[in-house]
Design a protein that fits this description.
The complex is a heterodimer of chains A (226) and B (210).
Chain A: H1 2-33, H2 41-64, H3 70-96, H4 149-157, H5 160-188, H6 192-218
Helix pairs in contact in A: 2-3, 2-5, 3-6, 4-5, 5-6
Chain B: H1 7-67, E1 74-75, E2 108-109, H2 116-124, E3 128-132, H3 138-148, E4 154-158, E5 166-170, E6 173-177, H4 185-192
Parallel strand pairs in B: 2-4, 3-4
Antiparallel strand pairs in B: 1-6, 3-5, 5-6
The chains are: A mainly alpha (226), B alpha/beta (210).
Chain lengths: 226, 210
């Protein structure tokens, strides 16, 4: 009799554990398969990388109006058209997920606690910390790699080779941070499409960094004081 | 006269009593094991249910705050979309839409007034234009800038002659508030920066004039 009771109790306990495990897995599976929420890596990346891309487009547009060099203009046009289109993909996802372009989460909040794969960028990023502002929702202008208003003004005021050098140095900084952000999303996003595009951005911008570096070297390196 | 029981009958009765006692004990133990197991099952299922419900409620609340209609927002329809070269006489102050210059005003923070005809074009591209009375105290201006900074589709600029110290405008919508700490400012931005009212979603707010 006592043995039967133990068997009954043991079976009931096992069934209960399986039920709970099933519910927990179901919950996890549901959130992993369902629409990304405002606090997800997917949504945070889509908002922040969109704004990051838009500044790259802005810089490319400026240098296209200021340079006659066919090689440099081809690189700038490539960045301008690619990043404008990629920004559109991220915009579309947010609309599809019913989140729109509004913010409820801090700028770069999705990066908190995640580190990009080290040694991938090939540039020294030591001492560069991804800051998440605790004051309200933060600032897109202060995302890593973003050119400051003064740097944008310097690019706008420059012409010819000087504009090309400023563009190349600002875009290098921009890409280095862009690669880091994209690497985190490529690893951490739930949505396979997001991981795929982020991964392509990381490798694409990484390759472009070599081109930007070569073009900058050919022109005498960065402009001092920018 | 009392009946005498034999020692044999006595032993049998004691044994029966012991067996009965043992059976009762086993029943109690079995009841206890089943009872405790049932309680554990109920507790675990309840805990999971509570987590599920709380998570769902949290999401629903977040979504509601984002989508809830904002009190005091005025809407305007039948706004012109033509490109003009001169000035336009807009019926609202500041304007919320209508005919405009071919070039848009670049989004950003401005300490000098911007041109209406260009700013209207920015709103057509999805920008929210935050305007403040030039007499607004600096700490309030700073608050408006902080509210705008999470976005790159915002314009902040002083504006003369408004009916209230601060006005938020997007294409076809406007909200007048008394000061920069008004709690409707954040939801307004969240709903209308590149919001559904945008006539040209995807259009830029850089590469114009400033």
């Amino acid at each position: 009799m006592a043995t039967r009771a133990v068997v009954v109790a043991g079976s009931a306990a096992t069934a209960a554990l399986l039920l709970v495990l099933g519910l927990v897995l179901g919950l996890h599976w549901g959130s992993a398969q369902g629409t990304p929420t405002a606090g997800s890596v997917d949504a945070g990346f889509s908002l922040d990388m969109q704004a990051h891309h838009r500044q790259a487009v802005e810089m490319s547009t400026l240098v296209l109006d200021r340079s006659d060099d066919e090689v440099l203009r081809a690189v700038a046009r490539d960045i301008q058209l690619t990043q404008q289109q990629q920004a559109g993909q991220m915009y579309g996802w947010l609309e599809q997920w019913g989140l729109g372009q509004g913010r409820t989460e801090p700028v770069m909040g999705w990066m908190a606690g995640h580190e990009a794969a080290p040694g991938m960028s090939g540039h020294d990023m030591s001492g560069h910390e991804v800051a998440v502002t605790s004051d309200g929702l933060g600032s897109v202008a202060e995302m890593p790699g973003m050119a400051t208003p003064d740097q944008m003004a310097a690019l706008e005021a420059a012409d010819g080779v000087e504009a090309e050098r400023i563009f190349l140095q600002l875009m290098t900084t921009h890409h280095v941070a862009g690669v880091q952000m994209a690497q985190v999303a490529a690893a951490e996003a739930d949505d396979a499409q997001v991981r795929h595009l982020a991964s392509a951005m990381a490798t694409g911008q990484q390759a472009e960094l070599t081109v930007l570096g070569d073009l900058l070297d050919e022109r005498g390196g960065p402009v001092a004081g920018v | 006269m009392a009946q005498q029981t034999s020692p044999r009958e006595e032993r049998a009765a004691r044994a029966a009593a012991l067996r009965e006692q043992q059976r009762r004990k086993e029943r109690r133990q079995r009841g206890l094991v089943i009872g405790v197991t049932a309680a554990v099952v109920v507790a675990l299922v309840a805990a999971v249910a509570v987590v599920l419900v709380l998570t769902r409620n949290e999401r629903a609340a977040e979504q509601e705050a984002l989508e809830a209609p904002i009190e005091g927002v005025q809407t305007f329809e039948d706004l012109g979309r033509d490109h003009v070269t001169g000035t336009v006489d807009y019926p609202q102050t500041p304007p919320v839409g209508g005919d405009h210059q071919a070039v848009w005003w670049n989004c950003g923070i401005y300490t000098e007034p911007v041109v209406d005809e260009n700013a209207v074009h920015s709103m057509e591209h999805g920008a929210v234009w935050i305007t403040y009375d030039p007499a607004l105290p600096q700490d309030q201006v700073d608050q408006l800038v902080a509210a705008a900074e999470p976005y790159d589709y915002t314009l902040v600029s002083p504006y003369e002659g408004m009916a209230s110290p601060v006005t938020l405008s997007a294409w076809g919508v406007q909200l007048a508030v008394e000061d920069a700490s008004d709690e409707r400012i954040a939801p307004f931005l969240s709903q209308y920066v590149q919001g559904e009212q945008t006539p040209e979603p995807g259009a830029a707010c850089t590469g114009g004039v400033s």
